[in-house]
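Quick review question:
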């Protein structure tokens, strides 16, 4: 009987992450270890590196009945290029907990085309999604607190567009009524939760080139409208600095390896 993905991953002999980084020319000073087999790369130290390279984008794959698609194809391609003597590195978006525990399952590849340590990558990894969720929900809390404390900006509770997030497929929370329980517990209004990866914070985070750039992008997020229908932003609530602080480590990319040690 063939081995399952998790069995293949658990029997793999992983390189220490510093050895994987060395194949990319990343030094110990540029590496932030998260245990023996995971790390973050300090992108601020890589600013002067040459950026000339060829990019292959893998997208719009029709998955097999077992679910293999873009990730498995990308891992296989990167491993194959490395076998041919090319210097290759694979860039993937890390998995969301919602699909991992849903029908889809994990998102670290499959069979012998996997990224490892598969369990850690599919679960909490280095905490990036938790940081994104915290930043999103901090903005939501500051928005509702502003209304509770007198609503100086004149925000119309009926025209709030900013939702809270949770990194799980939880349809029960898609549309809710919040702020119940009396004067001490906020203003009653309709609200809802998205899955963390759907947050605009994640879009800002993916496009940002630095913490300063991230802070500016976060500040431009529109969270709702006033009674005069003027847009209200995160900057109006003075929220972008605290949000960026929560994302200060998450902005550094994670480094792991495939079963064939491709970074």
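Suggested answer, residue by residue:
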């Amino acid at each position: 009987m063939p081995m399952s993905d998790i069995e293949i991953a658990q029997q793999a002999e992983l390189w220490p992450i510093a050895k994987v980084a060395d194949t990319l020319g990343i030094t110990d000073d540029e590496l932030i270890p998260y245990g023996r087999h995971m790390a973050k790369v300090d992108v601020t130290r890589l600013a002067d590196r040459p950026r000339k390279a060829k990019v292959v984008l893998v997208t719009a794959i029709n998955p097999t009945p077992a679910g293999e698609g873009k990730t498995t194809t990308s891992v296989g391609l990167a491993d194959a290029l490395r076998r041919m003597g090319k210097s290759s590195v694979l860039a993937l978006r890390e998995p969301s907990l919602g699909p991992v525990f849903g029908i889809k399952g994990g998102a670290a590849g499959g069979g012998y085309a996997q990224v490892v340590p598969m369990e850690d990558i599919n679960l909490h990894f280095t905490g990036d999604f938790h940081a994104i969720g915290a930043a999103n929900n901090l903005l939501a809390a500051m928005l509702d607190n502003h209304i509770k404390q007198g609503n100086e900006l004149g925000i119309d509770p009926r025209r709030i567009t900013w939702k809270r997030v949770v990194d799980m497929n939880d349809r029960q929370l898609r549309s809710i009524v919040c702020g119940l329980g009396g004067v001490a517990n906020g203003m009653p209004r309709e609200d809802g939760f998205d899955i963390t990866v759907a947050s605009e914070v994640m879009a800002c985070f993916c496009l940002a080139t630095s913490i300063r750039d991230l802070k500016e992008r976060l500040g431009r997020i529109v969270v709702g409208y006033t009674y005069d229908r003027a847009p209200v932003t995160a900057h109006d609530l003075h929220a972008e600095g605290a949000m960026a602080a929560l994302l200060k480590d998450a902005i550094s990319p994670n480094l792991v390896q495939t079963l064939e040690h491709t970074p």
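Why it works: The chain is about 30% helix and 15% strand. The radius of gyration is 21 Å.
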